Every structure is written in C-alpha cells, then in structure tokens.
Amino acid sequence: MQTPAFLAQFQDNKIMIAVTAFFLARTISTNIAATGAFEISVDGELIWSKLERGRVPSWNEIAALLSEKGVKV
Hints:
By secondary structure, this protein is of the alpha+beta class. The protein has helices at 5-12, 14-35, 50-53, 59-68; strands at residues 39-42, 45-49. A two-stranded antiparallel sheet has the order 1-2. It is extended, with a radius of gyration of 15 Å.
C-alpha cells in the first residue's frame, strides 16, 4: 500500500509537524477560552464534558479516555 502524499510530507519534515501541532493547540485553547465549552465524543458517545465536570482534561486524561474507547493514541 502506498503512503498518502500528505503523510509522506510529514515524515519528511518533522519541523512542520511541530509547528502544525503548536498552532493547532493554540487554536483549540483559544476556542475553549472563548466558548467555555469543551466536549470529546467517540462514535457519538460523549466521553468528556467540561460543562459537566467543571474543568478541561489534561492530555494524559484525554489519551486514557481515547484508549479506553479503542482509539490508538
């Protein structure tokens, strides 16, 4: 099976991955601060709600929740 072109570009340019992750994280954090809502769903099932729990999950909590639902992290 052939590697998709976008994935091959990421493999060839690891700095691009770091920069993309940085800006994606900033965009997500800005959105969370603006709306006050943050929810994570897997296959339509809500697995985290900031409104219910009163806080944003840590990266470790997100990874654990996704792993519990069979999402490879």
